[in-house]
Amino acid sequence: MKVILIETVPKVGKKYDIIDVAPGYARNFLFARGLAEAITKSSAKRVAELQKRREVETKRQDDLLAKSFAGVKSAVITVKRPANEEGHLYAGVTAEDLAVELGTAIGATITVEHIVLEKAIKELGEHTVGAMLGDKKAEFKVIVEAEEAK
Questions:
Q1: Least C-beta-crowded within 10 Å: which of 56, 73, 145, 149?
Q2: How many domains does one find in the chain?
């Protein structure tokens, strides 16, 4: 069954994509949650318009991100997390955490796909993390400090 995604669905497709899914998945999951709608003649025309709008919005975001990407090299992010006496964190600092913090620091929308982090940071100290936008690469510093006990 061909459907139009109204929202981005992880591991299925991006917003306004036309995808082919099983009828049961479409009825019971996508339609029920308002994530997709069935293709009709009128919706096919609307999808073309929405895809153009998405491309324009994506290009605008990429341009804004490219301008802000220059600030990544000079960015220093400080993260406070609870740790034990040996300097090991109870919960690691993940790429999602760093994406939010970096986005706040440089004033742009950074996603997890832009952060190059093989595994979560689980120790206190200074770490160098990579960021990637298309073919551009940059590195920024992350300082992990122990959170003070209350």
A1: 149
A2: 2
